Amino acid sequence: MQQIIAPFARPLYIMAKPAGSICNLACDYCYYLEKSHLYKETTKHVMSDALLEKFIREYINSQTMNNVLFTWHGGEALMRPLRFYKRVVELQKQYAGGRTIDNCIQTNGTLLTDEWCDFFKVNNWLVGISIDGPQDFHDEYRKNRQGHPSFVKVMQGIRLLKKHAVEWNAMAVVNDYNADYPLDFYHFFKEMDCHYIQFTPIVERLFNHPDGRLLATPLQKNEQLADFSVTPEQWGNFLCAIFDEWVRHDVGRFYIQLFDSTLANWVGEQPGICTMAKTCGLSGVMEFNGDVYACDHFVFPEYKLGNIYEKSLIEMMYGERQQQFGLMKQHSLPTQCKKCKFLFACNGDCPKNRFVITASGEYGLNYLCRGYYKFFSHVAPYMDYMKKEFLAERAPANVMKAIEQNSI
Questions:
Q1: How much is the pTM?
Q2: What's the rounded Cα separation, in Å, for the pair 233 and 159?
Q3: Cis peptide upstream of residue 147 (ω within 30 degrees of 0)
Q4: Which residue from 101, 144, 234, 316 could staple onto 179, CB 3.0 to 4.6 Å apart?
Q5: Rounded-to-integer distance, Cα 334 and Cα 376, Å
Q6: How far apart are CA 105 and CA 120, in angstroms?
Q7: Do the bridges between strand 363-366 and strand 354-357 make them parallel or antiparallel, or are there none, so unpaired?
C-alpha cells in the first residue's frame, strides 16, 4: 500500500534566494553559480519588491504552526542591500498575524559590516557562515572572481559577528583536500569557539549541457566525477576521526549536525538533516523570479514545481508531484540498502548521490555508502550507550564519563 503524507502534517518550508545565483565569490565546487544558465533571458537576477511581499504574505499564511522560519540563501544573500532585509522585517511584522517569525541567512561572510551585524543582532537573525576550515583548506577552492583567496575577509566577518554578539554557526564543505586533515579541521572550529557545525560532503558529477551548465542532473548516469569530490574512504575516515574526539570531550558542548542526526535516528526520533530522513521533499527552494523547485540540490528543469504567480505554495509543496518526490527517496533504494543493518541510520543518504552500481549490478547505491558504513560501524557502541541514557531520561553526554571509565 502506497504511503501518502497527509497535507499539513508538517510545516511548509521553502528556502528563498533573493539574489538568485549571484555571488561575489567563484568557488570551484559551487553548484549555485551555474543556475544563472537557467535564466539567460532574464538580465536582473534579483527578487522584486512585489514578489518579496507576495512570498512573505503567502508563506506565513500557508503555515499551520505558530512559529515560522524564513531562510535566505544564494548565491550570496548579502548581494542584496541591507534595505532589502529591513523591508523583509517590515513585511513579516505586517503579515505575522500573531505568529512568531524567525530568520536565518547563509552567507560567505566577506561582505559583513558593523551595520549588517547590528541589524542581525537587533532582529535576532541566525547567521550561517560558509567556511571550509583553516586558511589553507578554505582558500583551496573558495576564491573570488579575480582568483584571490577569501579566508581573511571571512574571518573579518566572523569577528564582526562576535563583536555584535550575533548568533552564528558554520557550514563547512568537505572536499578531496581538507578531508585528509580531519583533526586540524575540527580543532580550527573549536579554537574559534564555534559550537554549531554542519559538515557537507561535496559530491558532484560533470556533464556539458547545451545551455552551458556543467553539473550532471540526478537523472544522468555514468558521468565524470568532479576532481574536488570527497571519496567514500575519505568521508568515512574524516567522520570517524572527528567523532573519536567529540565523543570523548565535546558531547553537549559542540554540536555537529551529522552526529546529532545519527543519534536521533538511533533513538527513533526525526533527524535534523533531510539527507538522513526516511523521506525527503520537505524543503523546497524558490528562485529570485518565483520559480519553486523540489529541493535545493534539485534545481533542474525536471524538478520545477511551478511559479508562485501561477500556483500557490501549498499546491506546489503539498501536491502529488512533491509527495512522489519525497517518497522516491525510500522507494528507489537498491536491495543492498534494504538489507543493510544501518538502513535506519542513513536511509540511503541524499538521492542526489545515488549513482553507484551495487555488487549485484543494481543501479542507485549512494556514492558515499562505504564511508557511511564505516562510520556507523565505528560509532555503534557509543550510539547504543547514548540511546540507553536518552531513553532513561539521562544525558547522552554521560558517554564521556563511561569512556573514561573504560565501560564502553
A1: 0.94
A2: 35
A3: no
A4: 234
A5: 19
A6: 9
A7: antiparallel
pLDDT value at position 176? 98
Residue 344 amino acid letter: F
CA distance 161 to 112: 8
CA-wise closest residue to 151 among 140, 162, 160: 140
C-alpha cell at 284: 523546497
CA distance linking residue 190 with residue 253, whole number of Å: 10
Bridge partners of 126, per DSSP, are 104
- Cell 571509565 appears where? 405
Question: b/e for 225-234, b at 16 or more Cβ within 10 A?
Answer: ebebbbbbeb
The C-alpha cell at 301 is: 528543469
Q: Where do the H-state alpha helices sit in 46-134? A: 49-61, 82-95, 114-122
Q: Residue ranges of the chain with pLDDT lower than 50?
A: 1-7
* Cα distance between residue 252 and residue 80, in whole Å: 36
d(CA 113, CA 166): 12
Residues whose CB is less than 8 angstroms from the CB of residue 384 and which lie 6 or more positions away in sequence, other chains included: 266
Cα Rg for the chain, rounded, in angstroms?
Answer: 21
Q: 336: how many CB neighbours lie within 10 A of its CB?
A: 18
Query: Number of C-alpha atoms within 13 angstroms, CB side, residue 122?
Result: 9
| DSSP assignment of 14-29 | EEE-TTTT--SB--TT
Known active-site residue 349: no
Question: Residue 19 and residue 79: Cα distance in Å, rounded?
Answer: 6
Report residue 55 as a C-alpha cell: 512570498
Cα–Cα distance measured from residue 265 to residue 276, given in angstroms and rounded to the nearest whole number: 8
- ∠ at Cα 116 (173, 171), nearest 5°? 10
Per residue in 158-190, pLDDT (tens digit) is 999 999 999 999 999 999 999 999 999 999 999
The one catalytic residue in 139, 296, 349, 384 is 296
pLDDT digits (tens, 9 = 90+) for 89-133: 999 999 999 999 999 999 999 999 999 999 999 999 999 999 999
Question: Which strands sit side by side in the sheet containing 126-130, from one edge to the other?
Answer: 255-256, 196-201, 168-174, 126-130, 100-107, 67-72, 13-16, 283-286, 291-293, 304-307
